[in-house]
Amino acid sequence: RGGGQLQRLQLLFSRGGADSRGARQFVEEAASDFARQHPDVVVYISPRSIPAPLLVAEYLNGTVREELIASKTSEEIVQLATKLAGHSGLDIIRIRKPFHTDNPSIQGQWHPLTNKPSALTVQGPRLQPQ
Amino acid sequence: MVVLSAARWVRSRLTDRFWRVQEVLKYARHFRGRKNRCYKLAVRSVRRAFVKSTKARREKKRFLRALWITRIEAASLEHGLKYPAFISNLIKSQVELNRKVLADLAIYEPKTFKSLAALAQRRRQEGFLAALGDGKEPEGIFSRIVHHY
């Protein structure tokens, strides 16, 4: 724990293809700067023949997040990549409670026999009905 | 050349109707009956569900407070105190715990709650002595007010 939770960033784009133009410019200009600024992130550049260019982010807890970068400029892709590098891999859903404990009770959780006299619970050999 | 409107012989087709419909249906999937499948019924149901959830945020606060009060009442009755006596005497003893925390203590820390009930009971008795037995008994210890300036 501590430091960035982003493990690897895969940039899938196509060599021709008009919507990969921003991705190709990003690869030429800003990809190495980004990789140098985030030394704990592994950046994979894979030119393939895919229909739409993707940025796949994988986190240390196993979450995989895919973002479309079709028809985005190089600066926008840099902003998106820095945003993804700042995320932890937790799901982006509504958090029900802002707190959580594994041990909520220290004195023992209440049960119907907590405040009753112990003659009801104790079963001893010498306990005679009075 | 500036063109402000498309030529008359150019027509456009709606190609992503499926995704526009799915955006609404995804919030209706757990509903009952045809309104979880049919778009026309689902639009109305989803809108009403959102409106109800917005308005219910104000009711939730009232509901939770009533729940906490019920739980504190049950726990203090186990120790022989009624809820108004318990709360008023805790406030008079300068114990500024809110109902949420008191309910959690009653569930998870029963011994702490028992000691709080004993404190409220003692303060109650001192209040009775101060009101009824004027001048003869000394002032109660738990009735002293601490000023944090």
TrEMBL record, chain A:
Keyword Kinase attached: no
This protein's major location comes to mitochondrion
Q: Where is this region: Disordered?
A: 103-130
* One Pfam family named in its UniProt record: L51_S25_CI-B8
Query: Where does the record place the Ribosomal protein/NADH dehydrogenase domain?
Result: 15-88
| Single GO cellular component term | mitochondrial large ribosomal subunit
What is this protein called in UniProt? Large ribosomal subunit protein mL43
Automatic annotation (TrEMBL), chain B:
- In the record, what terms sit under GO molecular function? rRNA binding; structural constituent of ribosome
Example GO CC term: the record gives:
ribosome
Domain of life the protein comes from = Eukaryota
Q: What CDD domains does this protein's entry cite?
A: Ribosomal_L20 (cd07026)
Q: Please give the biological process terms from Gene Ontology that the record holds.
A: translation
Sorted UniProt keywords: Ribonucleoprotein, Ribosomal protein
The record's InterPro entries line, in alphabetical order, gives: Ribosomal_bL20, Ribosomal_protein_bL20_C
Family classification? Belongs to the bacterial ribosomal protein bL20 family.
Q: What is this protein called?
A: Large ribosomal subunit protein bL20m
Task: Write down the species.
Answer: Pterocles burchelli
